[in-house]
Amino acid sequence: MQSISPEIIFRGNDAWVKALPHITAITKSPLILGRSIHTHKLRSKIFNDLKNLKLVVNSANLQFDCCYEDISFVKNIILKNNHDSVIAAGGGKVLDSGKYIAECLNIPCITVPLSASTCAGWTALSNIYTKKGQFIKDVTLRSCPEILVYDHKFIQTAPSRTLASGIADALAKWYESSITSSTIDDGLVQQAIQISRVLRDQLLIDGGKACKGEFENNLSWRNTIEACGLTAGLVGGIGGEKCRTAAAHAIHNAITQIITPNKYLHGEIVGVGLLLQLRLEEMKNNNKLANQSIKQLLVLMKELNLPITIAELGINVFENNNLEKIADFACRDKSEIHFLPFKVHKQDIVEVIANFEQQKIKI
Ligand SMILES: [Zn+2]
Fold it and tell me: Tens digit of pLDDT for each residue in 235-259?
C-alpha cells in the first residue's frame, strides 16, 4: 500500500480561503497545532476564520519538538475536548507531529505549511526527535494528510532562512535517491528519481532568484516554494520507501545528536550532510562527478547563506569526541547510510568529515 499524495491540495494566494468550505465539511471541532511565536498571528487568523464559521476551535503549541512528550500532551488535549481533526499550521516539526497524532487517534489531518522549509505538509512520514531535538526515528504513516493548504500569502511571511533550508532539503532528494535506487527496475521509482532531477535543476536555476525577497510577480519564488513544499513530497509519494534517503539525511540525524545552543533548521543540517555524502562518494567510491556536484552546490549554498561545514552549525568536531559521536550514529545498524551502494565504515566518516572541516573551501 502506498499513499502518494494528500486527498485535496489547495495552492496559490487564496488557497486558505478556497480550502475553508472543504475544511468545514470534514471537521466541526478542530485543534490547531503550532509552535513558533513568529507564526502566532497567522494561527490567530486561522483560528478566527474557523470560529466565524461556527466551528468549535481550540489551539495548542508544541513545547519542544516532534517528540513523544509533546505528542502525548497534544493527544490528551484532543481526547479531553473531543476534537475531530488536527490542523497543523507551521514548519516541519509541527506538521510531522500533527500527522502522527491524527493517525494515532484516527482523525483527519489538515496541513497548513507556514514556510517552504520542508515537504512535511505532503508526505505520509513523521520524524520523531527527543525533547532536545535529537533524531530518534522516522515513522511511515498509513496516509498523506486529508487536505494540504499551500497558501503563498502565508508562506511569504516566513523568514528567508526557511526557504534556503527548504531548498537544501529538496536538493538532497536527487543526490540521495539517484545513488540508492538507480538499480531498482521499478518504473515508478525510476520516474520519481527523474522528477527529483528536474526538481534539482529547477532549484539550481531559480533558487538564488527566489531568495531575493520580492514576492509579487516573482516566478522564481513561486516555482521554488512549490518545488520545496510540493514536488519534493510528490517524489517521496511516488518513489515510496525505495526512493530512499541516504548519507545526507543519515549525517543530519547524527549531527542532531550533539546538542548545540543554536538551533539549526532541518534543511540547513541536511545541506551540510549532502556535501559530506558527495565527498564520501568521491573519496570512497571514486566518483569524479561528485566533486563537480560539490562545486556546483557550493555556489548556490553560499548565495543562500546556508551553512556548508559542521563548524558553521556551531559544532567543533575536534572537541568532546564529537567526530566519533557523529560517525557512530551515522554508521549504526539501522542507518540510511547503509543504503549507499558501497560499504561505509565508521573510520570512513571520520576521515571524510575531518578532511572536509579542515579544508579551505573556495568557490
Ligand atoms: Zn529532509
Answer: 999 998 777 789 999 999 999 999 7
**Per the structure block, which three cell numbers stand in for 277?**
555524502
Residue 72 CB contacts under 8 Å (≥ 6 apart), including other chains: none
Cα 266 to averaged position of ligand 1 atoms, centre (Å) = 7
Q: How far is the CA of 118 from the centre of ligand 1 (A)?
A: 7
Rounded-to-integer distance, Cα 244 and Cα 181, Å: 7
Distance 287 CA to ligand 1 centre (A): 24
Amino acid (1-letter code) at residue 349: I
Report the half-sphere exposure of 216 (CA within 13 A, side-chain side).
Answer: 0
CA 254 to centroid of ligand 1, rounded, Å: 13
Q: How many residues does the chain have?
A: 363
Ligand 1 centre distance from Cα of residue 131 (Å): 19
pTM above the 0.85 mark? yes
Q: Do 117 and 94 form a contact (C-beta atoms < 8 A)?
A: no
Q: Which of 93, 65, 56, 222 is nearest to 150 (CA)?
A: 222
Number of other residues whose CB lies within 10 A of the CB of residue 240: 18
What's the CA-to-centroid distance between 271 and ligand 1, angstroms?
Answer: 9
Give me the mean pLDDT over the 73-101 stretch: 98
Q: Please tell me the chain's helix, strand, coil percentages from 3-state DSSP, rounded to the nearest 5.
A: 55, 10, 30
> What is the pairing mode between strands 125-129 and 135-140?
antiparallel
User: In this predicted model, what pLDDT tens digit does every residue of 181-190 receive, in sequence order?
Assistant: 878 889 999 9
Q: Give the three cell numbers for residue 332.
A: 549504526
CB 85 within 8 A of CB 79: no
Other C-beta atoms closer than 10 Å to the C-beta of 263 total: 10
| Ligand 1 centroid to residue 248 C-alpha, Å | 9
Gap from CA of 270 to ligand 1 centroid (Å): 7
Using the mean position of ligand 1's atoms as its centre, give its distance from the Cα of residue 311 in Å: 20
> Cβ neighbours of residue 205 under 8 Å, at least 6 residues apart?
220
* Residues 269 and 306 sit within 8 Å (Cβ to Cβ): no
Angle at 251 between CA 143 and CA 362, to 5 degrees: 125
